[in-house]
Design brief:
The structure holds 2 protein chains of 2 kinds. Chain A is an alpha/beta fold. Helix content of chain A is about 35%, strand content about 25%. The chains are: A alpha/beta, B mainly alpha. Bound molecules: adenosine-5'-diphosphate and magnesium ion (MG). The site of magnesium ion has 4 residues of chain A, from helix 2. Magnesium ion binds next to helix 2 of chain A.
């Protein structure tokens, strides 16, 4: 009885804890600071994008969290357990950046080995393996050795391995690096599916446009430091709109200031601080004054622009 | 203790050896050697000993016993070298390729991987020594009627040599690339072999420096004494008597032995294996992947 109560209490506590929480997590390799004072929280069930250029420290962060390398300083928790806890690894999945699976096994055999290592109940193996093969689009290639797979197919297999046993948290380190556009699209579908299931995803990527399509929240890293973090709206200024207009004189263009701060390059007008619901009003107003509208782009700033902007600011400040 | 992950890693190791055609290659080669040597042994009956007289049964067995020592030496060397070649890359290659990353993110200890690999390789070594040794002895006994005095000990000593080298190579494999570890392992094997002879020569000529060098090398890499144990298990009474009669003058000869290894030495070899295994676990734990 007591045992049951304790377990329920533990389960409640675990559910209340974030998927990932870290405080001043750092990793140094000699003089190289691979990751400096990473403090962050990833809520349960969210897709979290960890973005940055090559060498920023993304892979290092994932390896620290998964417990493959020890931290130089700082601490962290995963699903409520301190980093390095072995049992909590039953509930996570991991697709390494340098993914490789036994080339002398077939894909179902690799998946089986991971079912064993993940301690999934034996009765579920068959369904898990078949489910994974189908999910990542490898059905029909069951009999081939992994060594004969293309790089992209091996990455799909890695994704299948990471998703075995319906984990609560999945780490994907550059999951689309070897995939063609179809594969990338498939990965986005899988990410949506994971989010629906309530699985948290920690997604490392340098492909910013991809992240924009799927992430709830992002952190941008450079040289081992987080230079910005928050929801996409926070980072990209969701309340701005870019409109390509002709047929208005400068005074008429200026009159749009009534809707918010203006930025006018003669062709594109950017209205900042504009509630998305008011976009049609602006367009109406332009048309009323005789202007012609060619394009309307809410939230025109891409993650890439914002990232380059932040990098620029960083250089100016340092 | 939870052994399931250990068994998974052991199974993977054996699986890999068979899928990579290592097992089948070894089995075919070994069968060819066994058939060939058995055929040669059967020809012993037709050699002429003196003025065209065919050899007597006793003579055939005596010659067979000496040839067997040579054949066993070849098997022991093949097993020792194969153990090194297979074990030396077994951890390093998996770390370099990234194969361990996804496996170590599972609820397993680093020690599970090390012990599992060791266990899988040890099963291969013991199975090879036992299987090939049994068939070779069977072939010789069918063709000449000769069976060495201690066949089981013989196979155990030869397997022991393989285990020692496999353990050493696995330790090296936690830190060094396969090729480097493999070469160091081979050098260790030959140094131990030469060290045994040097020590024996030291005994024979009463030179303490040589004798001590031999002892130290023999303790650091305890393969040579095991080989001498194997030779002892193959010596029929007449040869053993000859060896004993030669006394310490014969100590340097690695093919003629008058006493089996002391129990204390065998205990040391066991402790050596366990100690190195512990060191391997420690070393792999400290390694960043
Ligand atoms: N094992 C290592 N030894 C030394 N330096 C390393 C090691 N791993 C990573 N680094 C360094 O740490 C920095 C961050 O690397 P990494 O985390 O792989 O970046 P990212 O995944 O963002 O491309 C790089 O400068 C890299 O050279
Ligand atoms: Mg990386």
């Amino acid at each position: 009885m007591l045992d049951l109560q304790e377990r329920q209490a533990a389960a409640t506590a675990a559910a209340a804890s974030p998927a990932i929480h870290s405080v001043d997590l750092a990793k140094h390799y000699g003089k190289t600071v691979a990751l400096a004072n990473l403090t962050m929280t990833v809520p349960r069930g969210e897709v979290f994008g960890f973005l940055g250029p090559n060498g920023a420290g993304k892979t290092t962060a994932v390896k620290l969290l998964v417990g493959l390398i020890p931290a130089t300083s700082g601490e962290g928790w995963m699903l409520g357990k301190p980093l390095g806890d072995r049992q909590v690894r039953r509930r996570i999945g991991y697709l390494p950046e340098l993914f490789r699976y036994q080339p002398w096994l077939t894909a179902p055999e690799v998946l089986r080995v991971h079912c064993e290592l993940a301690r999934l109940p034996r009765s579920s193996w068959k369904t898990e393996i078949e489910g994974a093969m189908t999910l990542v689009g490898l059905a029909g290639r069951e009999r081939d050795r992994v060594g004969t797979y293309s790089k992209g197919m091996q990455q799909r297999l890695g994704l299948g391995v990471a998703l075995l046993g319906s984990p609560d948290l999945v780490f994907l380190d550059e999951p689309t690096s070897a995939l063609d556009p179809v594969g990338r699209h498939d990965v986005r579908q899988i990410l949506h599916h994971l989010r629906e299931r309530g699985c948290a995803v920690f997604l490392n990527s340098h492909l910013l446009t991809e992240v924009e399509m799927v992430c709830d929240r992002v952190a941008m890293v450079d040289h081992g430091r987080v230079i910005a973090s928050g929801t996409l709206d926070d980072l990209l200024g969701g309340k701005s709109c870019r409109i390509r207009v002709t047929g208005l004189d400068p005074r008429q263009r200026g009159s749009l200031r009534a809707f918010g701060d203006l930025d006018d390059d003669g062709e594109w007008i950017t209205v900042r601080g504009l509630e998305p619901e008011r976009v049609p009003e602006v367009v109406d107003e332009i048309v009323r004054q005789g202007g012609r509208v060619y394009a309307v782009e809410p939230r025109h700033l891409s993650l890439e622009d914002r990232f380059l902007q932040l990098l620029g600011e960083g250089e100016k400040n340092s | 203790m939870d052994v399931a992950p250990i068994l998974t890693f052991a199974k993977l190791t054996i699986w890999e050896a068979s899928r990579r055609k290592l097992l089948i290659a070894l089995v075919l080669l070994t069968l060819a050697i066994i058939v060939g040597t058995s055929f040669l042994m059967s020809r012993l009956w037709t050699v002429s000993v003196q003025n065209g007289r065919p050899p007597s049964e006793v003579e055939v067995r005596l010659i067979a016993s000496q040839l067997l020592i040579l054949i066993a030496f070849m098997f022991a060397a093949v097993l020792a070298l194969s153990s090194v070649m297979v074990a030396a890359p077994s951890i390093s290659a998996d770390v370099e390729s990234g194969l361990v990353l996804s496996m170590l993110s599972r609820p397993v200890r680093r020690a599970d991987l090390v012990i599992g690999k060791w266990l899988g390789l040890a099963v291969l070594v013991v199975a090879y020594a036992g299987g090939s040794g049994f068939l070779e002895l069977l072939g010789i006994s069918l063709t000449t009627g000769y069976v060495p005095p201690h066949p089981v000990q013989l196979l155990a000593y030869i397997a022991g040599e393989g285990l020692i080298l496999l353990t050493l190579a696995l330790l090296l494999s936690t830190r060094l690339p396969g090729m480097t570890g493999g070469i160091i392992g081979l050098v260790a094997y030959f140094v131990a072999w030469v060290g045994g002879i040097l020590g024996g020569v030291g005994v024979a000529i009463g030179n303490d420096a040589l004798r001590h060098t031999g002892t130290v090398i023999g303790l650091l890499i305890p393969t040579d004494q095991l080989w001498r144990g194997a030779v002892y298990s193959m010596e029929p009474a007449s040869i053993l008597a000859a060896a004993r009669a030669a006394g310490r003058l014969n100590s340097g000869n690695p093919f003629l032995v008058s006493n089996p290894p002391a129990f204390a030495f065998l205990a040391w070899a066991a402790v050596w294996i366990l100690g190195l295994l512990a060191l391997t676990i420690w070393s792999f734990r400290k390694r960043e992947v």
